[in-house]
């Protein structure tokens, strides 16, 4: 007893010391990582704030300068004369400028000077008759609109009250030429604004950001102070070091309008780096205070937890023996018991209790030719199990698996091995089936049939749904004739074929079935290589889309695979393969990029630049959350006009997440891309869905076009679709137009866009371009 207690205390101490050391080292490391990450994040965030503030202040200053210039320009239009001699009288001019100045609180003086520089009229009569030809604003104002840097106007300052601080007033001049109706310069209209107007704007901007310890300055073109806010020193007209160490700063040059002489003013917003990193310093201080407390708490918690862990360790061997399900062998140690329990766990599926895939593979590999002869594998796959899980919930899915595992085990023979080999998949290994292969097949098929029959009556009530469909693959083999992996692969081929034929059936593996499967795998591999190598063997064909007047408005792009050995492979053969294997996504990306490059090429050709290309988009592609970003990147990279690109979506996309789909479609529309609903009327669409989808076009399925002349119901459906499109503001195009009678009937029903063999088969690029050019030469669109 004392020995056990001593080992318990020793283990507890070692665990506590080890975990405490690990905790302290981990905490120090994490603290250093967090410090470094915060430092990386704080500076960019601060620079972003400085940039936003600088942009805001620059925009306010620019708007005010532009407004004053516009107001002065409005006054100048009131002084337009037919000739210099017809300039309004001094009294009239003074009346105008006095009236204008009375509505301008920031305005100190407004005056009109003749071309020689003599002030002919001014607000309150100030400076009338004074020669201002030497003033910069007069010379510049004769040429164009001029805005000056702040300065002290000595003549004007003597006529105005002194500033509250006793300093001489400072002004900003705005001047512009006065011209008669013939464009001859008749004088200069000038306005002097008190400097405090601009100073107050900066102060207001600074007050809006007083919660952020930043310094706001207005600099002239030479980098000297003009104004400052938020606690910055009063401007001393001193040069400011915009790259001063210890500061983060951002500088924005005023975007003064093109009519106004560029000032070169800029807004400088900066913040001390120490203020930016203050939160990091506070966190470090807090961590230094908390570290000893946390270390003690961690050590105490580890001591308590270790105490609870040590005691179960002493009883682990007994639990292992119980879990192993067999009596302890003589001389078997606790370690051997634990090894046996772990081995059982490694060989058993935890959910259903039957063997797992690993144990099945081991048993297959261990088979050798025996007197019993043939063996068999029966693979049972639950049809649409993922859909069942999604609709019924994972708990019901687990109950279904457990019930099916129990049922298969009850129907299997005593020596058979039942294993769960996939999410909704079980495999039974049957051994000792004799030396007659047909009889062995009958035994395996009989088991497959009994499992299917039992599932239809017993599993549906358990799942609370319709009877469960089981696709079953059967493989009969002689032990030692193939590897375990080959046998499992072959029985899976048979099950996949059963699923491909519609499910809920059994298929026996054969050499022909494997040959077809290998051919499909080879075709998939070659298609993958064709896509990965830039589509060297993939080509686009173009089927024209024509309006009722015969003008070609664009084309639908259709991918073709020119296989180097087998020649042109039909899309009906490789498109379903691409969708089944997931290759439809890179294939669709290649088609879209090729179409975008073609649009960019046509943009430089006047006779082709009006064409719109329609590209089919699969449900797999549109289900990708980043699909709009992929399209945007392709458009940007190729330089295609998005308004000439149209994506055709089938109604099967509506079977997925509708809200997410609508958001992605809105994003695509915002790029300028058009959206068309292909094969309309054959799928999931309803008025509720259609009203939520941001589409531009409905495409009538060719099945309705084909029956249009023969069946009256087809005409009613087409008329309804056309009316629906018109009511929703959508264009409507009909595909599969093969006869002139179909085209005429569509026109009578209100459809004005067509596509089909009557108007042009899918053709290579050069043939399509020749057809468009030849047709336009006769009837230009």
TrEMBL record:
The keyword Transmembrane applies. This is Bifunctional diguanylate cyclase/phosphodiesterase. GO terms for molecular function: cyclic-guanylate-specific phosphodiesterase activity. It comes from Sphaerotilus natans subsp. natans DSM 6575. The chain crosses the membrane at residues 15-34. Residues 373-511 form the GGDEF domain. PROSITE patterns: EAL, GGDEF. CDD domains: EAL, GGDEF, PDC1_DGC_like. Pfam families: EAL, GGDEF. PANTHER family: CYCLIC DI-GMP PHOSPHODIESTERASE PDEF, SIGNALING PROTEIN YKOW. InterPro entries: Cyclic-di-GMP_PDE-like, EAL_dom, EAL_sf, GGDEF_dom, Nucleotide_cyclase, Rev_trsase/Diguanyl_cyclase. The keyword Membrane applies. Residues 520-776 form the EAL domain. Keywords: Membrane, Transmembrane, Transmembrane helix.
